[in-house]
Write a structure and sequence with these properties.
The protein is of the alpha+beta class. The chain has 6 helices and 8 strands. A hairpin with a 4-residue loop joins β7 and β8.
Length: about 280
């Protein structure tokens, strides 16, 4: 009947309204739960941030120390390879290095031996782009010889450029998990940091005094120790090659935040010996 159909429609509409209302209530409850959870995560992230920032600062300094250590080891390896790769007939004049670029200057009795120098240096695995910059025919005591200059670059070690980075695609849950992971290792990082902490923040005059003390202890005469800025020092001294190597090893072991920014080794005909010029940079922790 008509009345029965109307009752059926009315009941159907009522049931639909109840269903929609229940669904809306459930959705609202779920949304509120998600919102509460997100707010909780945000509060936890905010609470942990200062501690995480401290750990990241320690990690960043330890990475810098590792980079500077590898750089000094690279310089020592470079000098060792140069000493074995250059033919004995080559007269050494100068080696200059600034950052990752080097120049080798010498004299050769023939052009063929200059080619040997270039080929030998090209065989060193951590050196790249070796090339002969120029040669010049000269005469001494009626004997011809070649002045030459070879340049190249020290190949960057990929380990030097590792950095602690958070990917932009990380969810807040992943960020929070990463923060807890860092905090869990905080004690390990602090222990490693403790090995260097006492040598970190030296005033500039104390930094200079460190090398004066080294000079007295190792009987090395620094002809010049000149501050170029608050974080840069120029050194000039002479002596045999072992004095330079001992000084570089000292920097490697005792000066973790000191960078060998540039150096020059040149033959001085007047004193019949080697002269060393070194620019050091002090990195802030």
């Amino acid at each position: 009947s008509v009345r029965a159909r109307k009752n059926l429609i009315r009941e159907t509409v009522l049931i639909s309204l109840v269903f929609v209302g229940s669904l809306s209530l459930a959705f609202s409850s779920h949304w509120q739960a998600l919102k509460w959870r997100e707010e909780k995560i945000n509060r936890e992230i905010q609470k942990l941030s200062p501690m995480v920032d401290e750990v990241k600062r320690i990690i960043s300094t330890l990475q810098l120390i590792e980079e500077l250590k590898l750089s000094k080891i690279g310089i020592l390896q470079f000098l060792k390879e140069i000493s074995t790769k250059v033919p004995s007939s080559i007269v050494f004049r100068q080696i200059k290095m600034e950052k990752d670029e080097f120049i080798f200057k010498g004299e050769s009795p023939s052009h063929g031996e200059i080619s040997d120098v270039v080929e030998n240096l090209q065989e060193i695995p951590f050196i790249r782009d070796v090339k002969l910059e120029h040669t010049r025919l000269r005469k001494r005591l009626n004997l011809d010889y070649f002045e030459f200059e070879v340049g190249g670059f020290i190949r960057a070690n990929s380990k030097l450029h590792r950095r602690l980075e958070e990917r932009a695609s990380q969810s807040k849950n992943e960020v929070l998990a990463s923060m807890w992971e860092l905090i869990a290792r905080k004690a390990d990082y602090e222990k490693e940091w403790g090995k260097f902490k006492d040598r970190m923040e030296k005033p500039h005059d104390q930094w200079t005094k460190t090398f004066l003390d080294y000079s007295q202890k190792e009987s090395v005469l620094f002809e010049k120790i000149e501050p170029e800025s608050e974080s840069r020092l120029y050194l000039l001294f002479g002596g045999d090659i072992t004095q330079l190597l001992r000084f570089f090893y000292y920097l490697l072991e005792k000066e973790p935040l000191t960078q060998i920014e540039s150096f020059s080794i040149r033959q001085d005909d007047e004193i019949k010996g080697l002269i060393y010029e070194i620019t050091l940079a002090k990195n802030a922790p």
